Amino acid sequence: MDSMIMALAPVFMVGLAIQQLLEILDPVMNKLVGEGDKKLFLGVISMVVGLTIAYGSHISVLAPMGIDAGALDVFVTGLIVSAGTETFNSSLKFLGYAKENMKVSTVALKAEAHRDYVASNIMSKIDGRSTAR
Question: Nearest-CA neighbor of 78 among 52, 56, 58, 57?
Answer without folding.
Answer: 52
